[in-house]
Amino acid sequence: MNKIITIFLCVLFTAQINAFACDRTFSVASHDAFWPPYVIGMSNVFKGTEVRHGRIDLGWAGSYTEKRAKYAHYTVSYRTEVMRLYENKNNTHVVKSLADIFDQGLTIGANFGSYYGEEFEQYKTTHKKQIEYTSATSKRFEMLNKQRIDFAIEDELVGAYFAKENSNIKLVTNIEYVNKDDIYLMFSKKTVSINELKIINKHIKNNEAALKAIFE
Hints:
The protein has helices spanning about 50, 65-70, 100-105, 120-125, 135-145, 155-165, 195-205, 210-215; strands at about 5-10, 25-30, 35, 40, 45, 60, 70-75, 80-90, 110, 130-135, 150-155, 170, 180-190. By secondary structure, it is α+β, with helices and mostly antiparallel strands. The strands form three sheets. Strands 6, 7, 8, 9, 10, 11, 12 and 13 form an eight-stranded mixed β-sheet that branches. The chain has a three-stranded antiparallel β-sheet with strand order 3-4-5. It has a two-stranded antiparallel ribbon with strand order 1-2.
């Protein structure tokens, strides 16, 4: 996570001005300053659906893992994340699974610290030389555009943005998705209490329809 900003939170969602009065400051962590449509960083100002609607504190857009749960409170899920594969249309490959990719010695660009499902976790150990890690989504797609990697894994909405911006990038349609997970907010167990978590969970549940509209 390379961008830390501090926000005084007076509401959980901007759509409900009086929804959640608070008297404390939270630190917001973003793993990427440019992750459209979720985070868009311009001139030190952060915009996008994740930041604008108050999903705050140490971490957002988090998949559940037992390792993370040791130090973080998880809220109820606020959206579903679908991770897809993208390739360069000028260098396509015949693959129908992750196994095909790794068996053929091809390379995949991935994000540091992201979770892409149990199958990919195994390949991180058995085929680690075939995975190129970067902390910036734009860097992965730049590498894909220049054919320095064979594939990139990305959230389907983010991938659609980069594919629209660059005609060389295309979605891999032979593989439905790499991973599909419920996504949560993660709050530090050291700084956020269970009671505060309950309040936030309540407002996430009360805004289910609005959240669905934002992310779908």
